[in-house]
Batch of 3 targets.
Target 1
Amino acid sequence: MSLGAQGRFVKSFVPGLDDVILGFPRGGLILVSGLPGSGKTSLGMSFIYNGALKAGEPGIYVSTYESRERFIENARSFGMDFEKLEERGLFEFISLPVLMEVGVAESFNMVVERVEEMGARRLVIDSFTALRESFKSPHEARILLQSVLYRVLEKLRCTTMLIKERASAGEDVGFEDYVADAAIHLEATLLENRAIRILSFIKLRGGEIRHPKICFTLSKGFRALPPTKPLKPREPISFSPPPDPPEGYTTGIPDLDREIGGYPKGATVLMEIDPRLIPRDYHPLFLPAVASFIHKGRFIIGIPSEGVTVESLMRAGKLYGVSEEKFLKHGVYFIETTAPMEELPNIIRFDTRDFNAAFRKVMDTAHELAKKFHEPPFIGVGVDRLVRLFGFNAAANLLAATQDYVRQSEALMIWLVKPIEPGIVERLAPIADMHIKITRRHGCVIFYGVKPWTPIYGLQIDPESRTPLPEIIPIV
């Protein structure tokens, strides 16, 4: 990105948004559209509040329907204290219905005067749709808007967000759509009867749009969820396993423990993984629980998924502070005799021609290690590998039989299931205690509980952080 491009753009300071675009054209018109409840006002709040708080840019919010008191109260529920900004001279709320008594044109002139007097660098008009009803004709609205655009945008260099009600970006296209420097459309829709929110970039004059659609949430205020980034190996790693909840085991992720209460003792968790995902996409949701078991002196029994080797798991474990020595000391890993893999301690090979012998070897190992460690194990199973090795029915029988041991010993078992084999999820879901689906939408890794029911969560990772734990964000 050139210095010229940086100078033409101003950061939005909306959480997550500047990760996917350069920002907004400085002194430009930003058109934000969507149906009622889609998040337009929350986006406008964030644009004004964070611009003032983080960059010291004064802002004005003009509302056609909301009182100052209600605006302040709603903003406070998102953690935004506009009254403090008012005290510092960085914010002003204007209720347009009060000004409208003197006429539309005069009301706009008064807004422009306040922008100039205050030296405002950010302005939100909420909403243009309601305002348009006050004009005598579309021509009058266009003339007035042109006048405001010239005085506010070009002369005063105030970046202005214009909010418009509409169901889709292609509906009710008007003059404002053509003159806007950037256009964003917000949509609230459903995924398996769960709320999911989509932000679409319609245009960004002078800037690239590499991600035309991204997810966002209104949890604790407007936040864009850019494509989930992979973890980067870093030293030193800061990972301390969270405490186990009563009668359960930690997921290894404090955010997730707060949302679902951890994993119950003796439970079997089915993680249904979108086949389009690769291990680095879903491992941040799975490996923290494994690492927590190891750090707490417990042991692991693992059957890796297809395409995952013991060596790759060992490398991934280092992201969570698990050394190779600790990984092998606290784990036993089963692979087929024909697998081309380096011989390592605690690697047990089984003959895929004898299902009963393979099952007995797994159970005997579990009992021996339980006596050695005096703790129940974590059992992680890549179901797709089992199905390939033993066939659909035999693999399902092995999993069901292992589940009996897990319940009796109060262990924890996680099935990693990629629904490549038809019917495998339908066969296993009824007997699993928990069922979590992991997929990707618009670059963001998301997941949600089928059993028990949960909302959709976005999984966000800071690749520069010293801690490998993802942030779990409810999409509401």
Note: The chain has two domains: 3-225, 248-474.
Target 2
Amino acid sequence: MAKQKRLKIALIGYGAISQMLFDVFREKKPPIDIVGVLVRKGRVAATQKKLGKKVAVVDDLKALLKLKPDVVVEAASQQAVRDWGETVLKKGIDFMVIATGAYGDPVLWKKHLKAAEKAGARLRLPSGAIAGLDGLLAMRLGTLERVKYISIKPPHAWTGTPAETEFDLPSIKEPTVIFRGSPADAGRLYPKNANLAVTVALCGAGLDKTEIELVADPTLPPGTNASKLEVVSDSGELKLERLGRAMPDNPKTGVLTALTMADDLMKIVRHSDW
């Protein structure tokens, strides 16, 4: 019996998401090897100490690609997508993106799609902290009449965003809409909070026809965030509400974000399509 091929992945960033990926793979033991992690300059030694000698820690993309990963997983920022995505894809290496807010820029989106197609690579967009995108993808084959995505987080999760200057976040006592507008603007203005706004748009009606609301809600159960997806089409309607646990050290990000990334990577090895 032939030995099962193992998927080699490399991570960009070593924050809460990457740490959870290590934890999930350690527990579930899929045929996946994390061969390297790219971190900012000055963080190599500290990260290497945490990870031990089995995983290469580098501060240069060229060094990361020398590890010959099958998939490079962005778990860092929209800037990382802009800085390194095209290079990864041009090398024929699959690129998984979670900071999809970067693709609020249609020029970047088209550039990455073109690079992937030309090199035979795949641009992989996990669903992140939401469900129902399978239904949205199917419904867009017909006519989408309305798509609305609402991201709901406790007031303190919006600290460090434009909402902090427009609202007195600690004083909010009831659910309050802090942003209403386009996916591109949501992703640009709230780069750590609203990447899913762009994911929903790309999976559905597009950047110009998707409604986005960001909500500060002090009534959420402690340690959680939520979202709503509302779709109206000629094939029917979809209404989905999700309540999820936030990362313990990062209220801006849901635990489900990392889990969907892990699941998508595990699907690759289950389907043997790499």
Note: The radius of gyration is 19 Å.
Target 3
Amino acid sequence: MKDESIYPSDEDDQSFGALTFPIYQTSSFELPRGERYRYSRENNPTVEALAHRIALLENMEMGNCFSSGMSAITTTLMTFLRPGKKIIIQRELFARSFRFINDFLRQWGVNVEVSSPGTENVLKKIDEKTDMVFLETITNPLLRFNDLGTIAEKCHENHARLVADSTFATPVNIKCGDVGVDISIHSASKFLGGHNDLIAGVLSGKRDLVNEIDLGRRNFGGSLDPHTSFLVMRGIKTLSLRMQRINETAMKVARFLNEELKVDTIYPGLETHPDHEAARKNLKGFGGIVTVNLHCSADDALKRLSSLSMIKPANTLGGLTTTITHPYTMSHRGLSLEEKRMAGIDEGLLRLSVGIENADDIIADLSGLVNTKKGL
């Protein structure tokens, strides 16, 4: 079976036999020959090639590209939601996504219902008044797995749309087009790009829906530039290889933290995870994010990060090298104390993004998180 992350799509430009799709670094195109593209904020051959690639990866009809993952999210939500519409989200959501929906959209007149974590809790919220469900395939940072197929079925029974941020899962571990998701979104800055050197967002879905979102992209201006599109396509070429390695290494790291260091470890691949069985049945791999709770103060957690030498504290994930984040003061710092408490963002929580380094090297570095004499 052909690996769509490596081979070009049928619509890629092969006019000159180039092995790598070129960067069309131009603001506009000569008319009438360039009528298809006209102006690069509207459309560009390199950006279009990436959109085709994303659609193939997710088994969707059409793709689209944005200047960031948040641009892809906000443009999608603004396209389909308006005052009086109802959206269901989970309490555990990337902080910027939660802020935009729970603050801006609610103030704009959209009815926002917040579900507790877990597929069963989302299903209870969906009814005939639901217009959209927005969730993360694997949640950030507590790694709850949402059974997309089951949720999609309930959504469609009620004529609602399912939008999934599948950044943590990646199309290698689950293809959203195969399980009924209407729109799949990725922060391409993470695993898709894979090198911590770009900011981009992508989405894919049914052609009629993506065409509507594309009109919003053109109006809001969150378009992706051709050079960054080229970098994302470069990253995608090694996505399958990287994720295979990352999946395997993350499993080893999670078991070490849980069984050897006796740290409270959250990872869908562990039998102790509340969604392990559903994740095992639906995912080809459990992903590269491992979360631990040291059950300590924020100051103590940050001090423990100083014991690491190879692993760098950073407010990102999905790169070649292993990074670690303190959600309480980094990724979810925008939440209030009460919102953090309700979302389970404890002061001692650490989110590890496993890279492609040797597993033993990562494990050796992580040993410093625990003071073996004093314990946790």
Note: The chain has two domains: 45-236, 240-369.
